[in-house]
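Why should sequence recovery work at all? Because a backbone constrains its sequence more than one might expect. Tight turns favour small or flexible residues, buried strands favour hydrophobic ones, and helices have their own preferences. The token representation captures these environments compactly. In the example below, the structure is given first.
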């Protein structure tokens, strides 16, 4: 066994886990780790705020299937991670966050830049650690990666006091990780699977509701086989977009309060709802009520989610890929697609001389033919993107679903581009969300990350503005962004090429210019404040 500092041991464990890139900002309480990182081949991306580090790690994790890693110092460095960690937790993204902490002998004395980050993040991490014993660091790091990447994925935080980082230990990596009490169940119960098959085959109007769990488990092909064999219409949550191609004949769209009419209509008419990897929270259901006449099959790897929001007749705890594979072995073929009349009612959007957001998004779809990774922020543009972009591959529509975090899109695009550099990465954002973390333009410039940013500028916090217009009789307060900067000049200040689009006649030209540009590019789209979320 080799002798080394805890800081160096941390780096060696990261290397053993296949970590190639981490996102973060150094500080006094984490400097021993950074010093050890200097001698490794792990790439470090210097962000401009710690929240962005988690979002970038998230974008990387969601495009690669690997664990994303971010690092921060103690105090405000650690607390700045909180929103990003909560975002990852709500969307089940595997993250390992490493924070420095003050000297272990000073913990609890309110010294400079001390904060109880393990206590603060306990409600929205899968697990977290305060490392007190230097000898346990290797096991803790290995456990963190195992916990983050298995079962229902999620973030794990490790807080390491500076004096612990500097101590020497005997370095040895354990051959296997065995955590008492943590045994994620991946195989569904055979009897429950048998009951599910019988329920599907006996139903007349079955509907599949696909969530982010289908994409996380890599179960898209198994889902496609099931729905094509049984000719079942598919509706998705926001996180489930991309579970099957959005142009698939059986895909009806996103459900919920901002969902497509035909998707919600199918849900109301179904006699059997097959929920896969979704929790069906309030925004997903909207005002749709689950009736007593509807039977529900709920498949999820997290038993806590089954029955939490809707009563379930046939619960199946297990990995979506494995469970669907077993169902497909036993399921027969159905002759007719019952929802063809619903799909035929799809609304035709207005085609006029005005430049609408859906025109821009559909032109992007046409120009790229779905060969991209899309990230979005949160707001009206998120819903426009969900409804109008062509998504043909799972894991290529990346957004903040559960927490609804403004500022997520651009950092996530940076992480996604590092994860899959061969893919074109386009971030769809709004002027409100963009200004939450616009300083990441500096990261794009420094690292020369060739992401494309489509910025819808309506000089409003659009979603809330629309809400005030509808429900507050136009009593607008704190939603007008009259102080917006000149985004073209801002982009130029960061060395990023840009273009402003104000008319429909220039639309195709603008998208082609953005597409052909070899490097980062910002396309500002001027949009009416009165453009509705759903036309």
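From this structural description, the recovered sequence reads:
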């Amino acid at each position: 066994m080799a002798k080394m500092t805890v800081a160096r041991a941390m780096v060696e464990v990261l290397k053993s886990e296949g970590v190639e890139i981490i996102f973060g900002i150094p500080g006094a309480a984490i400097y021993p780790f950074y010093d050890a990182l200097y001698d490794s081949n792990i790439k470090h991306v210097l962000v401009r705020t710690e929240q962005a580090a988690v979002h970038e790690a998230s974008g990387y994790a969601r495009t690669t299937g690997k664990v994303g890693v971010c690092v921060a110092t103690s105090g405000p460095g650690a607390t700045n991670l909180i929103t990003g960690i909560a975002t990852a937790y709500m969307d089940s993204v595997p993250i390992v966050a490493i924070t420095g902490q003050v000297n272990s002998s000073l913990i609890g004395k309110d010294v400079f830049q001390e904060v109880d980050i393990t206590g603060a993040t306990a409600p929205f991490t899968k697990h977290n650690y305060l490392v007190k014993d230097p000898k346990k660091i290797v096991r803790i790091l290995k456990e963190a990666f195992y916990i983050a990447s298995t079962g229902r994925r999620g973030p794990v935080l490790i807080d390491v006091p500076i004096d612990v980082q500097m101590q020497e230990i005997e370095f040895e990596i354990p051959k296997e990780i065995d955590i008492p009490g943590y045994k994620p169940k991946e195989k569904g119960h055979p009897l429950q699977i048998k009951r599910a098959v019988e329920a599907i085959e006996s139903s007349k109007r079955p509907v599949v509701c696909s969530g982010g769990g289908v994409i996380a488990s890599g179960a898209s092909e198994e889902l496609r086989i099931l729905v094509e064999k049984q000719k079942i219409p598919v509706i998705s949550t926001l996180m489930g977009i991309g579970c099957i191609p959005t142009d698939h004949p059986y895909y009806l769209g996103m459900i919920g309060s901002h969902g497509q009419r035909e998707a919600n209509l199918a849900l109301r008419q179904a006699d059997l709802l097959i929920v896969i990897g979704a929790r069906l929270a309030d925004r997903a259901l909207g005002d749709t009520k689950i009736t007593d006449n509807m039977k529900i099959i709920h498949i999820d790897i997290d038993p806590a989610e089954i029955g939490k929001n809707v009563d379930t007749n046939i619960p199946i705890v297990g990995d979506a890929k494995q469970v669907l594979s077993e169902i497909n072995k036993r399921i027969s073929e159905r002759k007719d697609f019952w929802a063809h009349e619903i799909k035929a009612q799809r609304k035709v959007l207005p085609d006029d001389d005005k430049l609408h957001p859906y025109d821009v998004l559909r032109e992007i779809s046409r120009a790229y033919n779905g060969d991209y990774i899309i990230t979005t922020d949160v707001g009206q543009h998120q819903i426009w993107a969900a409804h109008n972009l062509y998504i043909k591959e799972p894991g290529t529509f990346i957004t903040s679903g559960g927490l609804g975090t403004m500022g997520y899109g651009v950092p996530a695009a940076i992480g996604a581009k590092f994860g899959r550099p061969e893919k074109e990465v386009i971030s769809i954002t709004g002027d409100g969300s963009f200004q939450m973390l616009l300083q990441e333009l500096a990261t794009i410039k420094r690292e020369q990350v060739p992401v494309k940013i489509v910025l819808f500028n309506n000089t409003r916090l659009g979603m809330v503005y629309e809400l005030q217009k509808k429900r507050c009789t136009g009593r607008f307060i704190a939603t007008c962004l009259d102080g917006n900067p000149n985004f073209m000049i801002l982009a130029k200040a960061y060395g990023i090429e840009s273009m402003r689009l104000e008319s429909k006649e220039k639309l195709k030209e603008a998208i082609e210019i953005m597409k052909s540009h070899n490097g980062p590019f910002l396309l500002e789209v001027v949009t009416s404040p009165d453009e509705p979320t759903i036309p």
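A few observations help interpret the result. The first strand starts at residue 2 and ends at 5.
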